[in-house]
Amino acid sequence: xxxxxxxxxxxxAAPVIGxxxxxxxxxxxxxxxxxxxxxxxxxxxxxxLGYHPSLGCVSSLQPGWQSDTWLLDVDPAMGxxxxxxxxxxxxxxxxxxxxxxxxxxxxxxxLNRTIPDLSMAENHERWHKVETAKRRLIAQLVSLGLxxxxxxxxxxxxxxxxxxxxxxEGKPPTTGHxxxxxxxxxxxxxxxxxxxVRVQMHEPYRTLLGHFRHEVGHYYWDRLIASSDWLxxxxxxxxxxxxxxxxxxxxxxxxxAPLDWQQHCVSAYATMHPWEDWAxxxxxxxxxxxxxxxxxxxxxxxxxxDFDYQPFPSSTLYDPQHPGAEAFLSFVNAWIExxxxxxxxxxxxxxxxxxxxxxPSAVITKLHFIHLVIQREGGRADDVxxxx
Length: 388
What we know:
single chain, 4-stranded mixed β-sheet, globular
């Protein structure tokens, strides 16, 4: 079952990626040019490109039998597709959907309930940044086997996004999650605004993708934990979510995080309430999975790294006796080494640390718990890199 981490461990141990390995974050155009997740046209041969969310790859396209339909060069037998209607909008979406789909929008764009006011020129670039981050989020959720259901399909359990600015009274929206609706202040896509808020909030890291990964963690807590047999185990690991959220929020902003928070949580904000601890840790799980996938996909190796650190023992895991425990532990320890190397690369360019966080043993326990929840729900957390 745990092929993802088995192969991850073997790839980390390999100093060179062999020719038979497939890169999980770059794909070949029919002309041989490398294609990346955001590309919609090949820079070498000008071929039209599209991202297929189920296949998890970008493919060059051939015209289909009908106007505005396309066949995948990577697998023409898969049928006929259309490009998302948001391709020519500021969102610049490069995703595909079946040609016979009744919707004009792909699965990622169909999650939008409200988009920013495009009569404001500055919102064009901002919305583009937002949608780029959101597509990366949705692609990862699909790759993990998690259900992504628009609220237009299921109002009660579906997911939707409001990307909005100030209301008529000049009040900015609050970024957050409520009953499957994720709200994002469009100003978060303005680099100057976001950096100013990051400094004011004393945060080491603040990005659009980080916002989305955190807020979608709240959504999946409702879906995977709230009414499941995981709930009591969640309380043992993260704390009792029945504690007053309003009181916890007020206490956090008045008193700050406990002095020893770094021994228990991944961030100061995670100490505020068990729901926030879950969402912060969930976001870091997605960060780690995607970053390691990308790093190893480009042939990076941890074998030759010389870091003076003590690897986490199996006792730090939520379930050390689980069949996949050793593989998950290899993944975590590889991440520590890769993050250390990437931090040094960032410093060599005079940039902030790539990953400005320290993971204590308690967080490794929480990460393993989240992994087991996702694996049981989606069945693909260990298969993300199986063909790499």
